[in-house]
Amino acid sequence: MPTVATNDIETYYQRRGDGPAVVFVHGAIVDHTQWAPQMDALADEYTVVAYDVRGHGRTGGSSRASYSIDLFADDLAALIDALDLDRPVVCGLSMGGCIAQSFAARYPDRLSGLVLVDTFGPTPLTVGERIQRQLLRATIPLVRLVGYPRVEKAMVWLQERISGEGVSGDYARIEAIRESGPLMGTEEFAKVIRALSAFDRTRIDYSHITVPTLALYGENEAGFVVRQMQSLAARLPHARLLVVPHAGHAANLDNESFVDGAIRGHLRRVWPDHDPSHETADTPPSTPEADV
After folding, report:
1. Where in the sequence is the domain holding 64, given as residue range(s)?
2. Counting CB atoms within 10 angstroms of each CB, which of 53, 165, 186, 199 has the fewest?
């Protein structure tokens, strides 16, 4: 099992391919296999790395009493050092996007580009968003009573009643990811959820993030994610914003070919001198788009 020491833990990772490096950071309560389609698509031209964030998957938990998004970002920096990756592009989805933002601001000279998918910044943009983040903590005692799968299914049902069908995308694929990996313990779940709900305490200086950034969100995403993604793209000086057709919160799974093409095109812009062995389309299909 490939692991590497990152701070006080052993982090599980998968590494494939050759060329400039791309590091994928998954969302909460799943694992590195959330990015499997993009690993498969891009390993022909790039070194691709996906790993299990602290508390998740085969990395598992740690003895720390609490976690934070900044701690996860420091773990990512340690992983990049340990694997000797030279200024990779970092791709993060949902919580992984929060980690990617923190990493990019804390270590601006350690990456070449950024991809943010279906994620959000630290600052709630509405009162409803602030309440929603605090409600995350309310799931912890419920999970202790009935287990995570039942609580999440109820949350998915509620979200689709509020935001409309499609917001959760192909939820069966997320369930399959969870079922295929090690089960997360309740205490680790609590530490991860508390870290996510406390993201508003994280200070991110967006003026430090000057690398080319691709921002993606599903066209069926919840309203608060759409607002957050548009706000992030407006704040980042070199950001390109794309809407992923026929996709919900896990856009990379809901419309693999579009996201694969969008990321590949972004990598070509980041590394224009990289000469792949064969030609592939470097732009995604036509979609609503904004260059910010």
Report:
1. 3-291
2. 165
